[in-house]
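Before relying on records like the one below, remember that each one covers exactly one chain. Contacts with other chains, cofactors or solvent are not represented anywhere in the record.
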Amino acid sequence: MQDQSTANNSPNKSNALTIHGAQSHHISGLTEILVSSFYNFPDLLTWMYPCLKLVIREDLRHRLTHHPPLHCCLVALNQSETDSEIIGTVEISLTPSFWSQKSEYPYISNLAVKNSHRRQGVGKKLLEKCEQIAWNWGYRETRLHVLHNNDSAQQLYVSSGYKVLGIESSWSDFLIKDSRRLLLGKKLY
């Protein structure tokens, strides 16, 4: 998948946001964004970051080289005339429905934007690209999960047309405060 979207992210800069299919040379940058977006260990446990990065990097490498036909990992790049910086990522794949093994829907996961580029429309553009991919695959609905306490992500999804389909709890609720997940869905028209 080549250049999917181009938009200026600031009228005062010559940089442009582009969205592409992720490739193996993006793995290190994607790993950094995923770790910084989804994991925040206390100082006492910072020794875990190198191990976590290794696991995520190898998982990404596997998914980029052995993915099923209906799977796509996207990378958002902030491109200038001389450089390109990875500022976001998302994945979309076809998975069985949580409630029914018969129905399938495109599932969006791992949406992450670099801290310095949040609230600039990058996440929204990545979501829109996923919805376009789902449409091209012949599906008219996408779904995703978000943590119950992740207000900024919920705001992004709701403003993009996603609606809550259910609230899921798990055994981890006893270990991690507010680990409930919301299942969200959006009909594509």
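The helical segments are 27-38, 49-65, 122-136, 151-159.
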